[in-house]
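Hypothesis: this fold can be encoded by more than one sequence.
Test: take the structure tokens below, design a sequence, compare later.
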């Protein structure tokens, strides 16, 4: 339930609403807005009788949020949430951003080479798994803490913020010490103890859609993070399982405009896992930006043929460079800027939209 205060409601009147909600046994969250303050009632509000609140001084209106998810819904917050993972690197604002890097961190040479290449091409964040959720226990599981140290080294070398995955609650605390954004992967989208832990840590979270998750499931999982007080959440469409084995997953482009209508949270796309096939990554990345995604995450490896994981879907650095040139044009065509790191010179296509990021 949302309590919309009158435009000129006094702090005392807002306080009165907060107290009334708390007396009813719920948590109250005042949210000052440009025009007026709203006060959210947090908890299972199915049985709440709003009439007591409605008659309080300064209350303009009561809105019952009809969706099963509350705080992630557009009903709860009309304007977009902007998630900033590092200075100048924000998702959900005017500019789109590109996160890129290898599937896994493999060695110092590999991650630093990858980081330099993706930065030169225009990426504004580096990805790379140190803890890998592999389908087989015999596949490469990642370098663990050593991988996080190598990511921190690559950040120091390039200035790129780091997005990397945590597999469990304990890992989330360790990952948070190194990462600028904690990734919760598809296989863990419904790991509720991990979601609660990441919600408490209060670092930006990249939450990927589960392999068999509906859009409602994805938003319900995001609700766990917001329920713990962390609204710094970026959603990610990364493809879902389908009966068609032609691609690794079925990349659900419609999820992007659907989520943007239902939620105020930013959403990006991962066409690398979405397709699993190198030559399909470029067309689907173009399509994702055209569909309105707030960014893309792309796997890029200095030498994909030797990659320890997901080589077949990893772009060569020159392919990635060509893709970024195209993404800038597409972003501009739909009236969006293209993110750049603060202080970075803007390359190619000297248009106003390009330099806005
Ligand atoms: C990844 O990003 O490396 C990854 C494992 O992705 P997903 O969770 O989408 O499979
Ligand atoms: Mn991968």
């Amino acid at each position: 339930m949302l309590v919309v205060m009158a435009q000129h409601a006094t702090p005392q009147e807002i306080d009165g609403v907060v107290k009334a909600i708390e007396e009813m046994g719920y948590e109250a969250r005042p949210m000052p807005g440009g025009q007026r303050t709203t006060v959210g009632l947090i908890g299972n509000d199915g049985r709440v009788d709003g009439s007591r609140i409605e008659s309080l001084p300064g209350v303009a209106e009561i809105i019952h949020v009809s969706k099963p998810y509350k705080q992630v819904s557009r009903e709860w917050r009309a304007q977009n949430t902007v998630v900033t993972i590092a200075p100048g690197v924000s998702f959900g604002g005017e500019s789109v951003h590109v996160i890129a890097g290898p599937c896994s961190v493999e060695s110092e040479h590999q991650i630093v080479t990858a980081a330099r290449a993706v930065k030169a091409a225009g990426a504004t964040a580096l990805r790379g798994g140190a803890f890998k959720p592999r389908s087989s226990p015999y596949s490469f599981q990642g370098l663990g803490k050593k991988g996080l140290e190598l990511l921190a080294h690559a950040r120091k070398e390039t200035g790129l913020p780091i997005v990397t995955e945590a597999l469990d609650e304990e890992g989330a605390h360790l990952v948070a010490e190194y990462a600028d954004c904690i990734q919760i992967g598809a296989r863990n989208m419904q790991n509720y103890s991990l979601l609660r832990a990441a919600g408490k840590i209060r670092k930006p979270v990249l939450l990927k859609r589960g392999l068999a998750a509906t859009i409602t499931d994805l938003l319900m999982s995001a609700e766990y993070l917001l329920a713990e007080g962390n609204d710094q959440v970026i959603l990610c469409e990364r493809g879902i399982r389908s009966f068609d084995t032609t691609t690794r997953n079925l990349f659900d482009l419609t999820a992007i405009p659907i989520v943007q209508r239902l939620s105020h949270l930013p959403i990006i796309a991962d066409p690398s896992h979405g397709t699993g096939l190198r030559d399909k990554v470029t067309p689907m990345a173009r399509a994702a930006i055209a569909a309105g995604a707030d960014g893309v995450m792309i796997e890029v490896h200095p030498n994909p043929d030797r990659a320890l994981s997901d080589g077949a879907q990893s772009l060569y650095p020159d392919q990635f460079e060509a893709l970024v040139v195209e993404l800038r044009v597409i972003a501009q065509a739909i009236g969006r800027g293209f993110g750049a790191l603060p202080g970075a010179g803007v390359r190619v296509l000297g248009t106003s939209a390009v330099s806005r990021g």
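Residues 97 and 295 are 5 Å apart (CA to CA). The two ends are 36 Å apart (CA to CA).
Hypothesis status: open.
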